[in-house]
Design brief:
This protein is 33% helix and 25% strand. The chain is α+β, with helices and mostly antiparallel strands and 398 residues long. α3 (55-70) packs across α4 (92-99), α6 (202-222) packs across α7 and α7 packs across α8. The two termini are 35 Å apart. The structure holds 3-hydroxy-3-methylglutaryl-coenzyme A (HMG).
Length: 398
């Protein structure tokens, strides 16, 4: 029987790659002024995965503290959203299932629609919990955003994973209905199977993103969603953080809500704190915006938040959530800050070397150097199989 109980995000945890390249360092080599990066696109630094990190190790790192806190008894489904898939057949979540020692009575599936995938996972998870409120769903969003070297997109790379436990009577955010939906076939950003890096028409992608803001907002309002002025602030997908400010201006203009630049800055800045030093993390980006907002100074008990999820290609969704009073006691702020501060800064030449050593595809045994500061690593490739290992217990920054 469907439940009347609230359903939503019960726990939220994220981790990022172990390496970091600052935009000040990048600008020395691209010739772009650092102000273009810091102000124009709103990025200070980008996380990069170490040689022995990938979407599986980051996701396992993000999820381990969630499992530690809540156990596994009620988890019946694990949804893994990514657009940096490591296999055309096997779901990356199965490796995470194994690394975390989850029980066998769990279904595990991978979802893809560019950066939108995690929102699809969250909504599907909420529907499963509505149907069977004793069950919990573990939603993982993990990506490495990688563009061609020396391309305009290069400054908008990043890497991170978010883990969300979706349950009835959640501790953090109740997810509301309705949702505003928007799908439009557009070639703004895509990655054919034979490529490691995305192809993108940057300017077209920004236009497509803003069109999706309109489309999803219109559908939300047509379904008798809340008046936009009743929404405290909106967490946007943040391919680079300035995009969120542009999107909020566009949303408010479209809805006929007046706001000056200062009001927009005040509303959006608390959502960008993590993404401006981590970079684009595709599926995880929107949920890092939520983490930044919840971990920040604003008091949000009972506040209504908006969420705008955009995945190039394109699919978008606008929905709202209510912050559960007392949420602050369940946050993981210090662990998030520690995951960021433990990153090792690298210089441009090291970054370049990392990018020019792809994993071999000949099936020969290949060992990877131990570089990660996380609890799980990709130790090598053998017979075309990825071999993962646990480094140590995850409790250090839970
Ligand atoms: P670009 O051509 O290098 O940059 O590309 P630009 O010349 O347009 O400059 C960027 C901004 O910096 C401009 O501001 C400049 O004025 C400003 P705007 O006019 O846009 O407000 N600027 C300066 N500001 C201060 N001081 C200065 C200065 N110089 C310039 N000295 C672009 C930028 C974002 C297009 C590029 O990085 C790119 O292609 N990125 C990848 C695509 C992308 O992120 N698209 C966003 C929407 S699509 C999306 O969100 C989906 C995605 O996440 C994928 C998925 O769904 O899976 C990407």
């Amino acid at each position: 029987m469907p439940t009347d109980r609230a359903v939503g995000i019960h726990d939220l945890s994220f981790r990022t790659g172990s390496l970091v390249l600052t935009h000040a360092e990048l600008s020395k080599h691209t010739g772009a002024s650092v102000a273009k990066y810091h102000k124009g696109i709103g990025q200070q630094a980008m996380s990069l995965p170490a040689a022995d990190e990938d979407i599986v190790t980051m996701a396992a790192d993000a999820a381990a503290p969630v499992i530690e806190r809540h156990g596994t008894d009620r988890i019946r489904t694990l949804l893994f959203a990514t657009e940096t898939s490591i296999d055309q057949s096997k779901a990356a979540g199965v490796y995470v299932h194994s690394l975390l020692g989850l029980p066998s009575h769990i279904r595990v599936v991978e979802l893809k629609q560019a950066c939108y995938g995690a929102t699809a996972a969250l909504q599907f998870a909420a529907a499963l919990v509505q149907r069977e409120p004793e069950q919990q769903v573990l939603v993982l969003a993990s990506d490495v955003a990688r563009y061609d070297l020396d391309s305009p997109g290069e400054a908008t790379q990043g890497a991170a994973a978010a883990a969300m436990l979706v349950s009835a009577d959640p501790s953090l955010v109740e997810i509301n209905t309705p949702s505003g939906l928007y799908t439009h076939d557009v070639m703004d950003f895509w990655r054919p199977n034979y490529r490691d890096t995305a192809l993108v028409d940057g300017k077209k992608s920004m236009v497509a993103y803003l069109a999706a803001v309109d489309g999803a907002r219109r559908d939300y309002q047509a379904r008798e969603g809340l008046p936009i002025e009743k929404i405290r602030t909106v967490c946007y997908h943040q391919p680079f953080t300035r995009m969120a400010f542009k999107a909020h201006r566009h949303l408010l203009d479209g809805a006929g809500v007046e706001a000056d630049t200062a009001a927009i800055d005040d509303a959006i800045a608390p959502t960008t704190r993590y993404n401006e030093i981590i970079g684009n993390s595709y599926t995880a980006s929107l949920y890092l915006a939520l983490a930044a907002l919840l971990d920040g100074d604003d008091e949000l008990d009972a506040a209504t938040l908006g969420f705008f999820s955009y995945g190039s290609g394109s699919v978008a969704e606008f929905f709202t959530g209510r912050v559960v009073p007392g949420y602050r006691a369940r946050l993981r702020t210090s662990a998030h800050l520690k995951a960021i501060s433990r990153r090792r800064p690298i210089d441009y030449n090291t970054y370049r070397r990392l990018r020019t050593h792809p994993l071999p595809d000949d099936g020969a045994q290949h060992r990877l150097p131990h570089q990660t500061s996380g609890s799980f690593r990709l130790s090598g490739i053998e017979d075309h199989q990825r071999v993962y290992e646990t480094v140590h217990a995850s409790a250090d920054i839970a």
